[in-house]
């Protein structure tokens, strides 16, 4: 069986290889273009937001319902509505885990629904191309993939009963899951072949390494206009002229009044009755959550050894470690020997690893440690890190809580979940209502309607807090309209009806005179600060002392360290001009002036260093990342080519096929 499967795989790679040779000549002409594309800001944003990850993105796709509704066809393949729904749910869940309550808004902003549809089309394009190239997924590859998934394992080993249980609990049909995985593995092969033969040269790696890891240290003086403001003045005619020429600076803010009440999960908990059978069912389903696993406190002595080390080196290390074991068995201190001989980062603490649970160490180490008694020292244990001696110092046994012990906790969880569901259902109803029914709904829900005073985005409403996030909603609504300001279930969502509104108006000169004077004097102070910065730059280039000149003007120096990729600078934020000027400084040209949106900073070069770590390892990581970027760029080009030659029909009018850029 093994011979048949591996032979089939080898044949498939051979067929692909012949076709790839034909394409290599065309590919080479594209490489430089792709390098530029893969380094562009747009492409990096694309990777961050969309990250063309067809493989396993849609894995276990389409297991809800049997309805076969086709939404599009790609060549001879049908894309089903249930596939789309499952793929969309996978993506939206990932967004929710990353962005929480903002996920739905982000999904709308990036048009996630269309993205998912487009990616499904791309998935089928690649699968169709893979089939044309005679690529296949062998049974052995499928088995290896499934066996290596941690959620199908028990005690670090694949467990078939666990495999079936996980699929059953998630309502997944086994053969459909495995067919989906076959496609995912096939897509991995296809993507790997697309990037076959790409090479990142040392010059590119060096440039990227310097961009990512080189740090520049500078000190700088910020010429704060407030320091110079006492040197300014303005008469009334100047102020009136400024007010006349800049009316938008002196407008009032949008103001609102509203009626409102709040709804939270607390409003529904009294309506929730958690039954005994629900408690028992929850306990049975999640009983692992109420188990405190066994723990071990241990020390170790490590002699590092590469997994592919020679037999001679292995035996040499074993002999050295065996001598230490003899000393320990003879009464020597394990801790002191660890301090002297261990090659691990814990050596200074006598090899102390602290407390750890099953699953927190590599299997070889963990199996040996958990098989030992307190005070026992192991024989020599080999792991991917090298050779170990292990001493178990303390043990804590596994503790399983009974149903009675966790009953109150489960009741609270179930009640909270039920209350949340009732709250969500009520909010859905309220969203469909018009403002005329506001008072009746408040009465039905036994809520007291409150009326606000006039407020704008800078105000705080007692009991609600800052309304800055509410203002954009109110600005889109008309008087009398009803809406819901969604916050969170604990704070309570705000159900409101817009009352009176006041549009912004330009304040009269008399009303705004103080603000006008501040604006005029600040503008003059900014001009003085820039003039002082330029003069100081000339002086320090002429040899005068940097710190003394700053001190004489009532200014202070700050030290900063940053890289090419440091976007937000400490105390300065996103100041691209400061970064650009600072990065061009060196020992021969140590001073520069950054002027960014009227902010003037005089910068002095101090030194260049590199980030901590192994440079060779960091460069290898950079090479890998550059290669991945180039492969993604090549994949995008390949997909564009496939789209141009494919027969794609969008059947469901909800979706539209976007032109590839």
Structure at a glance:
Helices cover 49% and strands 17% of the residues.
Tell me the distance between the termini. Answer: 46 Å
Low confidence ranges = 1-67
- The strand line-up of the biggest sheet is 18-5-22-21
What is the C-alpha radius of gyration, as a whole number of Å? 34 Å
Helix proportion? 40-55%
Q: Give the helix tally.
A: 22
Number of strands: 23
Q: What does the overall shape look like?
A: extended
Percent strand equals 15-25%
Q: What is the typical, i.e. mean, pLDDT?
A: 84
The largest sheet, given as strand count, sense and whether it forms a barrel, is: 4 strands, antiparallel
Tell me the structural class: alpha+beta
Structure description:
This protein has 661 residues and is an alpha+beta fold. The chain has a four-stranded antiparallel beta sheet. Strands 13-6-17-16 form a four-stranded antiparallel beta sheet. The radius of gyration is 34 Å and the shape is extended.
Features:
4-stranded antiparallel sheet, 661 residues, alpha+beta, 23 strands
List the helices and strands and how they pair.
Elements: H1 2-38, H2 41-49, E1 70-74, E2 77-80, H3 81-99, H4 103-109, H5 112-132, H6 139-147, E3 153-154, E4 157-158, H7 160-169, H8 174-194, H9 202-213, E5 214-222, H10 225-228, H11 236-245, E6 255-263, H12 276-285, E7 291-292, E8 295-304, H13 311-329, H14 334-341, E9 352-356, H15 363-370, E10 381-383, E11 386-396, E12 399-400, H16 403-431, H17 438-444, E13 450-451, E14 460-461, E15 465-466, H18 471-475, E16 482-485, E17 493-502, H19 509-541, H20 546-552, E18 557-562, E19 568-569, E20 573-574, H21 576-583, E21 591-596, E22 599-610, H22 615-645, E23 648-650
Antiparallel strand pairs: 1-2, 1-23, 3-4, 5-18, 5-22, 6-13, 6-17, 7-12, 8-9, 8-11, 10-11, 14-15, 16-17, 19-20, 21-22
Helix pairs in contact: 1-22, 3-4, 3-5, 5-8, 9-22, 11-19, 12-16
């Amino acid at each position: 069986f093994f011979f048949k499967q591996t032979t089939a795989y080898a044949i498939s790679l051979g067929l692909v290889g012949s076709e790839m040779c034909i394409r290599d000549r065309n590919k080479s002409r594209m490489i430089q273009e792709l390098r530029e594309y893969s380094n562009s800001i747009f492409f990096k944003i694309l990777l961050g937001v969309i990250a063309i990850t067809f493989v396993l993105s849609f894995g276990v796709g389409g297991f809800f319902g049997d309805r076969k509704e086709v939404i599009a066809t790609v060549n001879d393949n049908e894309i089903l509505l249930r596939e789309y729904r499952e793929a969309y749910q996978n993506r939206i869940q990932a967004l929710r885990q990353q962005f929480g309550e903002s996920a739905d808004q982000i999904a709308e902003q990036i048009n996630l629904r269309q993205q998912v549809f487009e990616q499904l089309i791309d998935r089928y394009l690649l699968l169709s191309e893979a089939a044309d190239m005679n690529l296949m997924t062998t049974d052995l590859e499928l088995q290896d993939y499934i066996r290596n998934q941690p959620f199908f394992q028990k005690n670090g080993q694949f467990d078939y009963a666990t495999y079936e249980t996980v699929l059953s609990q998630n309502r997944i049909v086994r053969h459909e899951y495995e067919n989906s995985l076959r496609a995912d593995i096939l897509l991995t092969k296809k993507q790997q072949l697309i990037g076959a033969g790409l090479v990142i040269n040392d010059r590119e790696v060096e440039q990227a390494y310097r961009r990512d890891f080189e740090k520049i240290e500078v000190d700088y003086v910020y010429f704060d206009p407030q320091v110079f403001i006492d040197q300014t003045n303005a008469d009334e005619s100047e102020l009136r002229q400024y007010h006349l020429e800049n009316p938008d600076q002196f407008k009032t803010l949008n103001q609102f009044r509203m009626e409102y009440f709040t709804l939270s999960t607390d409003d529904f908990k009294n309506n929730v009755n958690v039954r005994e059978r629900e408690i028992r069912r929850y306990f049975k389903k999640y009983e692992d959550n109420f188990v405190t696993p066994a723990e071990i406190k241990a020390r170790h002595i490590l002699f590092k050894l590469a997994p592919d080390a020679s037999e001679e080196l292995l035996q040499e290390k074993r002999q050295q470690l065996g001598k230490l074991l003899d000393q320990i068995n003879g009464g020597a201190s394990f801790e002191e020997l660890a301090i002297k001989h261990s090659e691990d980062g814990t050596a200074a603490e006598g090899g102390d690893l602290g407390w750890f649970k099953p699953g927190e160490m590599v299997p070889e180490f963990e199996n040996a440690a958990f098989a030992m008694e307190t005070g026992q020292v192991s024989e020599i244990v080999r792991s991917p890190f090298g050779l170990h001696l292990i001493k178990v110092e303390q043990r804590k046994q596994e503790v399983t809580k009974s149903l009675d012990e966790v009953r109150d906790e489960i009741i609270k969880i179930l009640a909270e979940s039920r209350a949340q569901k009732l709250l969500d259902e009520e909010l859905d109803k309220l969203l469909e209502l018009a403002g005329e029914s506001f008072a009746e709904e408040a009465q039905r829900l036994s809520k007291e309607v409150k009326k606000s005073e006039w407020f704008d985005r800078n105000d705080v409403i007692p009991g609600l807090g800052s309304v800055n996030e509410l203002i954009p909603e109110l600005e889109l609504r008309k008087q009398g309209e009803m809406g819901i300001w969604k916050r969170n279930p604990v704070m309570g969502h705000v159900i409101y009806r817009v009352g009176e509104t006041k549009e912004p108006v330009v304040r009269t000169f008399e009303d705004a005179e103080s603000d006008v004077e501040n604006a005029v004097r600040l503008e003059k102070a900014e001009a003085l600060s820039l003039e002082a910065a330029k003069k100081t730059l000339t002086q320090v280039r002429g040899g005068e002392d940097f710190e003394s000149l700053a001190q004489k003007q009532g200014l202070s120096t700050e030290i900063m360290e940053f890289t090419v990729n440091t976007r937000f600078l400490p105390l300065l934020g996103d100041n691209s001009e400061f970064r650009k000027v600072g990065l061009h400084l060196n020992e021969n040209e140590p001073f520069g002036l950054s002027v960014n949106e009227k902010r003037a900073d005089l910068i002095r070069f101090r030194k260049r260093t590199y980030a901590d770590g192994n440079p060779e390892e960091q460069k290898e990581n950079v090479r890998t990342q550059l290669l991945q970027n180039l492969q993604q760029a090549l994949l995008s080009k390949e997909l564009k080519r496939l789209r141009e030659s494919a027969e794609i029909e969008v059947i469901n009018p909800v979706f539209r096929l976007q032109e590839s850029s």
